[in-house]
Amino acid sequence: MTVGLILALGALALIVALFYSRRVNAISIDSGASSPEEIEKLTEISSAIAEGAMAFLKREYRILSLFMGLFAIIIVFTVNDERAGIPLGLWSAICFLIGAGTSVVSGYIGMKIATKGNVRTAAAARISLEKSFRIAFESGAVMGFGLTGLAVMGLILVYLGLITLHPTLDQHIIMEILSGFALGGSSVALFGRVGGGIYTKAADVGADLVGKVEAGIPEDDPRNPAVIADNVGDNVGDIAGMGADLFGSVAESTCAAMVIGAASFAMLEGEAKTSALLFPLFVSGVGIVASLISLFFINPKSEEKVESSLKNALIISTIIMLIALYPFSMSMLPAEFMLGNRMHTNMGVFITLAAGLIAGLAIGLITEYYTSHRYSPVRQVADASQTGAATNIIYGLSLGYNSSVLPMFIMAITVVIGFSFAGMYGIAMAAIGMLGTIAVGLTIDAYGPVSDNAGGIAEMANMGQDIRKRTDALDAAGNTTAAIGKGFAIGSAALTSLALTAAFLTRAELPTINMLDPIVMAGLFVGASLPYAFSAMTMRSVGKAAFSMIEEVRRQFRTIPGLLEGTAKPDYSTCVDISTKASLREMIAPGLLVILTPLLTGWLFGVHMVAGLLIGALITGVMMAISMANSGGAWDNAKKYIETGQLGGKGSDTHKAAVVGDTVGDPFKDTSGPSLNILIKLMAIISLVFVPFFVKNGGILLDMFGLGQH
Amino acid sequence: MTVGLILALGALALIVALFYSRRVNAISIDSGASSPEEIEKLTEISSAIAEGAMAFLKREYRILSLFMGLFAIIIVFTVNDERAGIPLGLWSAICFLIGAGTSVVSGYIGMKIATKGNVRTAAAARISLEKSFRIAFESGAVMGFGLTGLAVMGLILVYLGLITLHPTLDQHIIMEILSGFALGGSSVALFGRVGGGIYTKAADVGADLVGKVEAGIPEDDPRNPAVIADNVGDNVGDIAGMGADLFGSVAESTCAAMVIGAASFAMLEGEAKTSALLFPLFVSGVGIVASLISLFFINPKSEEKVESSLKNALIISTIIMLIALYPFSMSMLPAEFMLGNRMHTNMGVFITLAAGLIAGLAIGLITEYYTSHRYSPVRQVADASQTGAATNIIYGLSLGYNSSVLPMFIMAITVVIGFSFAGMYGIAMAAIGMLGTIAVGLTIDAYGPVSDNAGGIAEMANMGQDIRKRTDALDAAGNTTAAIGKGFAIGSAALTSLALTAAFLTRAELPTINMLDPIVMAGLFVGASLPYAFSAMTMRSVGKAAFSMIEEVRRQFRTIPGLLEGTAKPDYSTCVDISTKASLREMIAPGLLVILTPLLTGWLFGVHMVAGLLIGALITGVMMAISMANSGGAWDNAKKYIETGQLGGKGSDTHKAAVVGDTVGDPFKDTSGPSLNILIKLMAIISLVFVPFFVKNGGILLDMFGLGQH
Questions:
Q1: Which of these, A322, A509, A551, B110, has the minimum number of CB atoms within 10 Å of its CB?
Q2: Do B514 and A513 touch (CB under 8 A)?
Q3: Does B511 touch chain A (CB under 8 A)?
Q4: Does A152 touch chain B (CB under 8 A)?
Q5: Whether residue B482 has pLDDT greater than 70
């Protein structure tokens, strides 16, 4: 029954995605009121973007498959536990590859539809705002529902496969193998978020610094050689990167909950056992329905309503989830069950789910408050730009610091509620609750870059001020929802990472971790420093990659005659190539840092230090991620606020100061900040998958120095 | 014997301070080769600075005494433990007031000598670099030795007073009462570091933004109305603030060690007991001698040697300490003793001291590497300024992030060594080891702002390019040593805070803290967010205060005829007044945050959450403090590097971009960064002093909700 329901819900999501995909595809670019010349131009530009995006994906996937193959081999040979009775490493590696493959397919679908939706959104802007909005929004829905459906289907099918092949295996071993799926998804996210993040901002910063600042041409101007790379970047970073990140979160939090739950529900029988075990996955299924219902409430009648309409869908889906989850929690879970050494109830689990759901929404709305120029924080940053770039930076940074405080409090409360009502299982369920509305959340997230691209295309195709105004309105709403989405992504990454840590401790059979143990403390310290090392790397990578881009753009302006006058065409593809190569090269070092640190720590110093490491990295990582994302969002919107004509408007000294902040904010909000999600999650899922290795072979250095009962 | 030795060493430090003080005072301003007009001008300017500094101190001390009185009353009524047999709160409050008073006296002496040394350094620059250097350096020595002597004398006298009045009292209760002394010192540091930090940067940023950027007049130009306030700020922030911070660290780490050691050494008898108990204080005494010896090695023969000469003194004193501490550790401590439930040795204690000493030096040298423009990191920031302010900021921030990684690793290793060789006592001894060379460290630290002021005075008195070149050479060396000093201050603050946390846990009788306990976890999360909240506050405070300063300077330029032409004099005192008022007003909110958070947390949620809170704040606080201090130092020196004529030199676009970074760096390195030292230490010492209150009345909210065995 439960299995059938989950399969049906997963299939529903895929059908929704397919439905919207067909609708978007069915719209022809020339169905609008555009002239044939315009249609030709639109086609040309959008092909260039689509080709650039696909070129990046292809090259990324080539490196990815090499990396995945290597990592799979390592898993096969290190993750072993004789007690399991089967080759644990082999099965984990297979799940790992399936998870990675599923994530890759999700990313591919998202990119494909986004690069079709963008030009159709631009073309439809000739007809009406509503029509244009619907195309962008439906493109987003393909991504949102497609990805959620693939995650749910992937997990349930792999689970079914495992229990069919090994019907006598312990459930907790099955769940542990299943974690390989999540590791696969998360590894793809490393490439997507970090590589994609560097790509998009190298192009953006490079295009802005030469185009806007040096050459004095507007954003998205077709004369700028980096303009196509910039638009490709939106797809690479904000679609494929964001998608892979959240795919990972869904898979990881589900696996974490199921690993922890396996021990508690092992004594149940038959359908009761299955429904309790698979309840975490079922919650994601319910979320698909709740998200689908909320879509019907998205019908903005005017420009001003776009933003609130999208935001309301999130709120509505949260409310539906809250109502729907109550009966399911009560019926699918046993009334009372043991977890660790305490008794918990199904009512308790419902409360943890609700806490996660509400916390997610609250963090999203707080993020909006700090990054939208309708509220005072961003306006203060704009005001501070009047005394120059330095005060703009000072106020922007302090806004970011400030904005991370309340979300951290909310997280603390959620953790206390989760733990108090359902132990470590509660933490995982809070994460799942927070990710419950992911289908609609991701729809809205993906809507943003599609509109952004549409605006870029409209500008490049010279569609005129009226059209640009429409796409700008769509884009502005996308900016706010992107900020909400980022808050969501970080919050859920934090809870997911905590849930994975809990699952790791459960599997390593460590019921308590003494913070005063020197090895744990050292782990905390080292872990705390990782987000700093990682951010330093990613920020400099953007700087370096942007610098190559700047050189290339300058070279083209210098060597191509008539380029600035608009009589010659720039060489877009070289810029696309620079971004692609630079991003893939620059992600190697931070990638290795994330992957090797937990492995080496566990191997050399044992599981206690790993526990400290994960918590240390989680704490500083979340604080940094939130403050970077929000500083970046605030700088962006402070600039936009000034561009509405406030404080001197575009071209004033105040505006120039705000542009400096916006440029600093670019790697903050789109590279380093979001990449930290991957850092904290990937380290935790690696630790979980490699528990058998750590337990058997870990802590060799401590043993050597006789330092440890560890 | 031990008591006598400590008294003698403390007295030695005070005699050294007195000796140098007399030497500096004996030099007359007109002993140089200056003309009578110049002497008059020098006297006038230096009086204005001295008056401004004293005006600030007076106003600060007025508010301080009110605050101290109130806080003392709270201590009297809340810190009580019937088992002690005496009114614990009353005695703690008395120690608190004595500690505060001693710190105030140290700060006063430092300010007094600095405001005399600055003008004498400037005047002597007419004679020779050597002469000028000696005056600045000897002024620093008055501060370094005076403060260390007062701290040691204060602690030993209060200890003697307590055991004389209560000869039968348990040693651990005596030590707990003595912690009040450290709390007093640390509370003064709150005012000194936070208030002083806001003062100095409000004046600096305000003076720069209008003077250098808008009016185009050079730094320290006498036509700038904020120039006196700026020079007062150097004394207020870098002398009084830094001094109070380190006074607090010495007192706190000593008390932490003695609180932890009290339990272990209670079973010893007579002199053996006294020497073991007071060993931590004795180490500081040995440091006085080691520092004194190292002074004789400071004899720079040329400009280039100033910096290395100062740095060598630090290295020499570290080596002397390493050698000297071995015999004392072996003879003054029992060969074996129980700590917690493990046996430790005196050799182990020596190793922890050595670890702290070496770690301190290492962190200092790493800081130098990241902030001096002789090395590549700062030069990369300078290079990045070529593409504008945004890339300068991106590279500077990432440098700061990067620079915090290695120190954190060193701290982790120190913690492991400390814990492994002497348990919690080892952590405290590592902190004491790190602070062992404080007398010479502080000498070098205080040397910096004195030279900086001398340069400012030379500029204002129009002493000419040659003289300015000499004072600039002194100042440049001071910049590097200031960076080393900041690294030192943060590192020791971190270890001190950890030692205080260890003492707190010892007193609260919590041998283990389970990180997975939801209440501890919530504490970690909330604690982690405090440095962010605090930094946001202090950065904005600088912004706000600088803004009032800008308005005033603009007003004066507008309304005083002939000011910019140099025919009329600006109204310096209004600017001094603005900085004074703003800094004292703006420090209230962050001050309350630091003081109330541990108190409320302990009262409402109990000691487990306090433990999480302290560790959470420590981890993010240290990372932020190091990265802020180093980003700021690097921006400053990247600008200075360009000013040496590199990359276009002064006045170029690259230089303008670097000035933006320097301005952002000002509150980073001189306000928010150093203030975080206070945050982490003060919260920990408050928790330690209020342990009896928490144990008796703590956790009322948890009890209410039935959430806790806590």
A1: A509
A2: yes
A3: yes
A4: no
A5: yes
- Listed ranges A514-523, A556-565, B75-84, B92-101; the one with the highest mean pLDDT: B92-101
The phi, psi pair for A368, rounded to 5°, reads: -60, -45
Q: Which residues of chain B are within 8 Å of residue A547 when distances are taken between CB atoms?
A: 387, 391
Tell me how far apart the alpha carbons of residues A199 and A202 are, in angstroms, rounded to a whole number.
5
Contact check, Cβ <8 Å, A536/B398: yes
CA distance A663 to chain B (A): 6
Question: How many C-beta atoms surround the C-beta of residue B37 within 10 A?
Answer: 10
Mean pLDDT, chain A, rounded, equals: 91
**Tokens, residue B51:** 């008056």
Q: What pTM was estimated for this model as a whole?
A: 0.94
Do the Cβ atoms of B660 and A390 come within 8 Å?
yes
Q: Which residue from A407, A592, A378 is spatially nearest to A494, judged by alpha carbons?
A: A407
Longest dimension (CA), chain B: 79
Which amino acid, residue B184?
Answer: G
Q: Residue B710: which pLDDT band, with cuts at 50, 70 and 90?
A: very low
Token pair for A199: 């790509």
Q: Which residues of A215-233 are buried (b: 16+ CB within 10 A; e: fewer)?
A: bebeebbbbbbbbbbbbbb
Q: Which of A619, A671, A676 should one mutate to test binding to chain B, selecting the residue with the greatest count of B CBs within 10 A? A: A619
- In this structure, the number of other CB atoms found within 10 A of the CB of residue A1 comes to 9
Would strands A342-345 and A336-339 be described as parallel, antiparallel, or unpaired?
antiparallel
Residues B698, B682: Cα–Cα separation, whole Å: 19
Min Cα–Cα distance to chain A from B422, Å? 11
Among B351, B419, B529, B609, which would you mutate to test the A interface (most chain A Cβ atoms within 10 Å of its Cβ)?
Answer: B529
- B:631-670 residues touching chain A, CB 8 A cutoff: 659-660, 663-664, 667
With 0-12 / 13-18 / 19 or more C-beta atoms within 10 angstroms meaning exposed / middle / buried, residue A284 is buried
Q: Give the DSSP H or E segment for B343.
A: strand B342-345
Q: Are A447 and A300 in contact (CB under 8 A)?
A: no
> Which residue on chain A is closest to B514 by alpha carbon?
A514
pLDDT digits (tens, 9 = 90+) for A190-236: 989 999 999 998 888 888 888 877 778 887 888 889 999 998 998 88
Contact with chain A for residue B411, Cβ under 8 A: yes
Q: Return phi, psi of residue B25, to 5°.
A: -65, -30
| Cα distances (angstroms) measured from residue A254 to each of A286, A342, A619 | 14, 22, 22
Question: Nearest-CA distance from B608 to chain A in Å?
Answer: 11
- What amino acid occupies position B346? N
The alpha carbon of residue B295 is apart from the nearest alpha carbon of chain A, in Å, by 35
Alpha carbon separation from A18 to A120, A293, A624, B410 (Å, rounded): 17, 17, 38, 55
pLDDT of B114 higher than 80: yes
Q: Is A544 exposed, middle or buried (0-12, 13-18, 19+ CB in 10 A)?
A: middle
Buried b (16+ CB within 10 A) or exposed e, B106-116: bbbbbbbbbbb
B547 close contact with A: CB closer than 8 A = yes
> How many residues are recorded in chain B?
710
Q: Residue A704: count other Cβ atoms within 10 Å of its Cβ.
A: 10
Parallel, antiparallel, or unpaired for β B342-345 and A342-345? unpaired
Q: Please, which residues 676-695 of chain B have a Cβ atom closer than 8 Å to chain A? A: none
What are the pLDDT digits (tens) for A312-339? Answer: 999 999 999 999 999 999 999 999 888 8
SS (H, E, C) B76-100: HHHCCCHHHCCCHHHHHHHHHHHHH
For residues B506 and B263, is the Cβ–Cβ distance under 8 A? Answer: yes
**Chain B residue with minimum CA distance to A518:** B416
